Amino acid sequence: MDDQQRTVGTSIGERRSGSLPKTKSRIQLQSSDRRQNDILSAMRRMPFLLLSVLVSGALSAATASAESPAIVVKVHQASGVVSPYFQLTASPAQSVAAGSLQVVNPMSRPVTVRLDAVDAITTNTLGSAYAQTGGAIHGPATWLRLSRRLVVIPRHASRSISVSLDVPAAATPGDYLGGVAVEALGQTPTAKVSKGVAIGETDRYAIGVEVKLPGPRTPIVKFSGATVSREPSGLVFHVNAHNTGNVILTNVHGSVRVTTRSRVVGAATVQPGT
Fold first, then answer.
1. How far apart are CA 82 and CA 77, in angstroms?
2. What is the DSSP string of the chain?
3. pTM (predicted TM-score)
4. Which end of the chain has the lower number of beta carbons within 10 A, N or C?
5. Per-residue confidence of the chain (274 residues) as pLDDT tens digits?
6. How many CA atoms lie within 13 A of 252 on its CB side?
7. Neighbouring residues of 261: CB distance < 8 A, sequence distance ≥ 6
């Protein structure tokens, strides 16, 4: 699982001309997760992500790189264990403290920061990521409670926001993942133009909250079919895989081969992911 991420929200304007290139083929694992016992819908299918995800592997959060304003986000678990994301065990019908987020403003002027609960999702290339803010939340993201949603941080100061969960009584055993998005308001989008595509970027942090409910574990991956689509780079084969169990699967890997009669059309190795 990717623990803490700095995501770059994108708005894209595209200009294309001419015909498609000569046909090539590639294989993409299209991942999606069903609800687990009508509760877990944190890893929903998201075929096309308008996100560019940069994973921070350091135990202390990195500073956002957009031009104005910048913040630093640090995780303080209630358990005292040092980690870039929240990890806790809970039981149904229980309220439990995850810890707090310390948001630091290193700038010489005040910064307003917004915090939102967001769904965890599985990317098409495997690996966990987090949905954009502003949409409906589902499953464990609805369990999250934040002491404050909007915080004004004076210059060269920091503020702490408590994070807790209210686990519903109907929750069943298994692993659950949600996230807390932290974004400095008033950012000036950084524009990038390349090959006729213009992208405006704003920085946002997403902090994972992993909750384990005790009970039997059932790791399952099911394949539900495949589709073919034409993209500018050529033909893309999508293999639809579902996590129908109640475990966050790690080190998922394998290989895919597409054939027509005895001819191999395409083949790919699925690198280890979550």
1. 7
2. ---EEEEEEEEEEE---SPPPSP-EEEEEEEEE--BTTTB-SSB--SS--EEEEE--SSSPPBP-SSS---EEEEEETT----SSEEEE--TT-EEEEEEEEEEE-SSS-EEEEEEEEEEEE-TTSSEEEPPTTS---GGGGGEEES-SEEEE-TTEEEEEEEEEE--TT--SEEEEEEEEEEETT--PEEEEETTEEEEEEEEEEEEEEEEE-S-----EEEEEEEEEEETTEEEEEEEEEE-SSS---SEEEEEEEEETTEEEEEEEEEEE-
3. 0.70
4. N
5. 555 565 544 444 333 222 222 334 455 555 544 333 333 333 333 322 223 333 333 323 333 444 456 899 999 999 999 999 999 999 999 999 999 999 999 999 999 999 999 999 877 767 778 888 888 999 999 999 999 999 999 999 999 999 999 999 999 999 999 999 999 998 877 666 766 777 777 788 999 999 999 999 988 888 888 888 888 878 787 778 878 888 888 777 788 888 888 888 888 887 766 6
6. 23
7. none
- Amino acid identity for residue 183 in this structure: E
Q: What are the structure tokens assigned to 153, written together?
A: 């941080």
Written as six digits, the tokens of 66 are: 């957009």
